[in-house]
Amino acid sequence: AAADPAAAAKEAAAGAVSAGAELAVGSEVDAYDPEADAAADALGADLNEGGCAGEMNLVVAPVASVRRRLSTLLDEWPDHPLLAQLAEICDRVMALPLLGPLKSALTGLELLLARAQTWEEGAAAHVSLSAELTACAKLALRWRQRELRTWPRLLARAAERHVARAHRTWFALHRLLRPPVSSSYYSTAATEKREAAAAAAAAGDDSALANANGAITDAAGLTEEEHEGLRQVTMALEEYIMGATIGEFRARLDLLWQFHADLSVEARSAAAAAAAA
Q1: 94 vs 105: CA distance, rounded Å
Q2: Which residues are CB-neighbours of 181 under 8 A, at least 6 positions away?
Q3: Over the stretch 190-199, which tens digit does the pLDDT of each residue have?
Q4: Sign of CA dihedral 196, 200, 205, 206
Q5: pLDDT 10s digits, 119-130
Q6: Are 102 and 52 in contact (CB under 8 A)?
Q7: 61 within 8 A of 135, measured Cβ to Cβ
């Protein structure tokens, strides 16, 4: 069913103007809009994350409307290849999983709009799909705008992911730097021995450099075994820092500084308590 060429051209020009105006209005997004940013981030930077059931559900109504219109047209022209192809595209979009990535639905919508344009170029007004396709175009525009809104923050989002991965190493650091109290090095008896040995060494009593078990200690009250433990801890910390990615490096340093501050406060408290006693 072909329309008058002049009328078809006029209708196409009007549609282009309308779409351009809609795009211009839709592109006027505030530079700072937390709600819009959050909505855009929820879809993911490339719409491939999935899990947006509410957004995916928006595709049902417009595509179902196009499918019903196509069914009516196919009743009149059952062997029309373009109409059959458009109907197949609609069926594929409707068959997408609800929790699937929006990118699949968006690709289906844009393919539907592109193929339907061929039909619209030669269709008369009474067989046009423009009314049904408008809703599909608005939804595709909505998702593209949200995708574009995430682009200025792509680096920030990537940095946040790296920092989150670095923060997950907190537990490993805690096991390394703050072992259980039952550990022989951190036990009360071992601490008292180190303190007594350090005090004796400070007083010049070399005979106190052997602990109760006969193990030789240095001026700090550390045995050879404890020195080896400290060496292994130092090597582990060096590997921890050297193995960091660029995005995790600063966050890992911050974690180490936090443990250092915590241990320093604890050491000062213990020293103050010992002095008071």
Answers
A1: 9
A2: 187
A3: 555 555 555 5
A4: positive
A5: 998 888 888 998
A6: yes
A7: yes
